[in-house]
Design goal:
The complex is a heterodimer. Chain A is mainly alpha-helical. Chain A has one domain (2-495). Chain A has 21 helices and two strands. In chain A, β1 (78-80) and β2 (85-87) form a beta hairpin. In chain A, α18 (406-420) runs antiparallel to α19 (423-452). The radius of gyration of chain A is 22 Å and the shape is globular. Chain B is mainly alpha-helical. In chain B, α8 (204-212) packs parallel to α11 (260-285), α11 (260-285) packs parallel to α13 (318-338) and α13 (318-338) runs antiparallel to α18 (430-459). The radius of gyration of chain B is 22 Å and the shape is globular. Classes of the chains: A mainly alpha, B mainly alpha.
Amino acid sequence: MLATLTALAQADGEFARPAVDWHALAPDLVVVGTLCVVLVADLFLPDDRKGLLPSLAGLGLLGALVPVLTLAIDGADRTMFGGGYAVDNFALVLKALFLVAGYVVVLLSTNYIAEGDYAEGEYYFLLLSSILGMTVIASARDLVSIFVALELLSIPAYLLAGWRKTDPKGNEAGAKYYLMGVFATAVLLYGMSLLYGVAGSTLLADIGAALAEGESVPIITLAVVFCVAGFAFKVSAVPFHTWAPDTYEGAPTPITAFLSVSSKAAGFVALVELVLIAFPGRSDVVEPLLWALAALSMTVGNVVALRQTNVVRMLAYSGISQAGFMLAPLAVVGDIGDSALRTIVTYLLIYAAMNLGAFTVVMAVARRTGSAEVSSFAGLFEYAPTLAVLMTIFLFALAGIPPLAGWLAKFVAFQAVIDAGTTSAYVLAVVMAVNSVISLAYYANVAREMWMNPAPDGDRTPIRVPVSLSAALAITGVLTLAFGVTRWATSLGDLAEFVATVHR
Amino acid sequence: MNNNEFLTDWGLTIMVFLPLAGALAMLLVPKAQEQVHKWIALVATVASAGVGAAILADFDYDKTDTLQFVVNARWIDVIHARYFLGVDGLSLPLLALTLLIVPLCVIYSWNHLPDPRNAKAFLILILVLHTGMLGTFAAQDLILFFVFFEVVLLPMYFLIGVWGGEQRQYASIKFFLFTLFGSALMIVSFLALFFVAGGETFAIPDLAQRLADPGQFGLDAVPHTTQLLIFGGMFMGFGIKVPIFPFHTWLPDAHTQAPTVGSVILAAVLLKLGTYGFVRVALPILPEAAVSWAPWIGLLAVIGIIYGALACLAQTDMKRLIAFSSVAHMGFTMLGIATLTDFGLNAAVMGMVAHGLITGMLFFLAGSVKDRYHTLEIRRLGGLLVKAPRLGWILGFTAMASLGLPGLAGFWGEFPAILSTYQPGAGLSEVTFRVYMVVAAVGTVFAAGYLLWLYQRTAFGTPTEEFADEDIPDVTMPEWIAWVPMLVLILAVGIYPNLVFRVTDGQMSSVAQALAAIGG
């Protein structure tokens, strides 16, 4: 954007209004409208009618899907603001993911927030703001718009993570996330400023051209490392993962689901944009860095997850390990190019479905037991067989057992890595193979509690699942089963391509 | 569309997914209606077997080496996976075995539901397992094969873990982790294979063609080391499933802890997925690597034969003894495969069928003995022929079949396997394999030893004091219905082995010819 503005200012010295394609902006605008409506409605709604707020937020998010669909049917790639904002297939698939995942998070929040004596209006306002940041980042093709979108999605998330303000763990969650996040942002911003210094432009495409042509100077390496590190924090890759478990445990559970799915996906989106558009000339730096991040995340995430006794913490570490799998195609990006993009998008779609599903079950169970300890799942199959079966499906999907969706995600990751055909790629593939076996142990551990151990205290009162959670379970459950045996997820992932010319 | 066309186009699909449809129907029925669940499960498995019987009848037995009833449709385009099913002389006997065993298991479960009962969940898992097994034997695309191959894991994990014995939790996770480790390496191999073959297809016949004649497809010849490594990954995947020594340690635990029906399916069908994988996938696609690996596979096979037999002699638990006998028997099957000859491969497929019938039957018997005596400790049993003569005679008959008595099915699995090692395939050392032959022959003596010893201690003599006055019921009606077909088949295959050989021979000769071309 900055580049555009300066360019526009230089042309004749007169400011020309950039052409705005309202259709292309419509999804984001619908979200903006919704969050304004929610904020205003909160002021005028009496306390006993606040239940309308989540419905409004949810409807707004689904409403935003309509222009996404019309844009998809239209099919034309649209770029604006001198190439800094693109609505291509990649952006559309990711926007749809963020909107649907956001809708599921609203469903998860409905009862939790209403029953928990939290401020409702502000909660949904902040949640929608964060989702807006995500839909924007899917289109951002310029350092400035990436950064603005990143802050737009992060700052509300810091607040939401500390939403349980009376609970010390909630405070810890918010504070840790905020401090680590701000630190990572600073590192990222420094990296971006170096990139601008080298390339003389904030457009990713220009940076890509400049890095590919220019000589290899240490400052470029430094810039690349800083940028990657900044987003490694966002996707909670080892060694930038330390905030995740504490934040996940202390944050309200719907927000934990939101952070582990949407926020992580947003980090990947930005990372993919940078690596594929801005850094393709520098895969010599990117590859080893991401190779190490991927292998470390998988292994450390898994090994630590083995020792967890709390399901939410376990899911946090499992998410770290899954992030390692998603990073793996980027670790061989020089050899496989854009197919890394397809792979990661497919993985993100499947991961969102199964991980949100797992969190939904955790929330449903916690409504009765008030705890997310693994032991509190004991005997679930006896008194809530449907929930137990669904949780089993989500867990083994995460473990990658066919025919549940996760296998396809892992498979495309394997396919991308082995496609590279280099020795380091094969080593990474074997690391992935071993890790997918290790991960089974902790997912199966929860399944074992549910199916094979008796309920504690012999308490077998059934769980009453509210409508909103049932809806979330239905959406995630159907997707987790369908993605595993149909071509849907891979086809959507395959659609996700950047607009051919991001150049001005 | 006439009947035949419909059967050709849809027969396999319907056969594979009927059990799954049954499982979905059962989801809608409340848990308390046990009888309804049993009937749905029975109808689904029998209907699937009925479609299977129609396929069996319509199968062209003069062309056993070509795929029939082929379905080849789009599936997941992006990863080049296709929905490709078909049967040939190799698939057919194993499909028939599966289609026979599972309905019998459902019948046996009629009055033998293990604790904690829950007929709904138990039978749903068996039906899902059934679809997985049928699919594996029918799939001709590596990815489809892989998916079906893995589908069996979850149901079996829960069958062992929920309905199993004392150590069920340990046994179930051990089973799961071992097999998953193998499959993770196997899928890496499949993918490597996909890329060396041009990255366009996962279809097994196409891959075999492409690797046999890379130049014709504009591909580079695959280096020998690469082939060896890819074969190695598959070896882990299939070998753990078989299981080949030294990866067999999950098997005794899983078998011993599993509920009776689980053990039967595990022994009769699941283990065959491994040996089937070798013959279906590994040998035809990577014949060169197979020739290099064969002596080592043979070595592990004969170690398995002797080790399994010795371990049997040391067991005090009847079910564990039968489990270890599986290790030994699967050793014979692997030995047959390792010879890479027409003769050996036919023996291997026969071994799979025979072991499925006989060991499946032995596990049924062990389960029934456990139901009556509430123990399987051999020391405490005895005098079964006095207490329940029919049960005792059936045990005797099956034990004789298991030790390879001529005239019963077991003989045709073991004897040709041993014989085939005398003259191994081209490129293999005669001396090595003749040594294996001698060792394997010694193994049969051990087998006679442990089985006769088992039979003598459980069936002969007088009942032990603790059971002397107890009333031990003889074979019940559901048991008769479940067992008679298996006993008849053990005898029928034993007397007329061409029942199986005639079907398998065509396909096995063509595999062996390809191997001989490489080795020579």
